[in-house]
Design goal:
The protein is about 35% helix and about 30% strand. By secondary structure, it is an alpha+beta fold. The longest helix has 17 residues.
């Protein structure tokens, strides 16, 4: 097997609102996350982690914030796009860990709904998805209630292919033996 790990972080500012959208779950709160799309920072981080595994840039490469088509877009669209590209290269998800760093809202009452949404979106078993939360003890921008940070870590595997391995290294070998 061949293994890779995708890691990403996404941040969004708070603005006045009635709910924060995290992993597709609307959580009642005095804030919302600002952003060109729906501002779902954990799903943005997840999208970037999937794209990192296949070396395909980041969410901005695929969904430019300058493009009006993505104004207010559901972040699940971004995850599905990254997942399709990821799976087309033979990868499968082994494990997903999402960490939400924020003073508000409280994540614990919504954790299971968030896990279910992520597992369903990715088409994987619930026991492969973890969601955790922490505060920064009222320090930094999250502590001052200026915004929220989400981190994603994705572990992936695919069967080893000598043909694929050789294709990526053939040029290196040819250059080395050319001299």
């Amino acid at each position: 097997m061949e293994y890779r790990v995708g890691d990403s972080t996404d941040t969004h500012r708070f603005e006045p609102g009635e709910a924060i959208l995290l992993c597709g779950v609307a959580i009642p709160c005095a804030y919302r996350l600002s952003g060109h799309s729906d501002g779902d920072a954990p799903l943005h981080a997840l999208t970037n982690a999937l794209l990192a595994i296949i070396c395909a840039g980041d969410i901005g490469v695929h969904f430019s914030p300058d493009d009006p088509r993505w104004k207010g877009a559901d972040s699940a669209i971004f995850v599905r796009h990254a997942l399709e590209s990821f799976q087309s290269q033979g990868w499968r998800i082994e494990h997903v860990n999402l960490t939400i760093v924020a003073q508000v809202p409280k994540i614990k009452p919504h954790r299971e709904a968030m896990r279910k949404n992520v597992a369903q979106l990715l088409g994987i078993a619930l026991d492969r998805v973890n969601i955790q939360a922490t505060t920064e003890e009222e320090m930094g921008y999250t502590g001052r209630l200026e915004g929220l940070r989400a981190k994603a870590l994705v572990t992936a595997a695919r069967p080893f292919s000598f043909k694929r391995w050789w294709k990526t290294r053939r040029t290196l070998f040819q250059a080395q033996f050319k001299n």
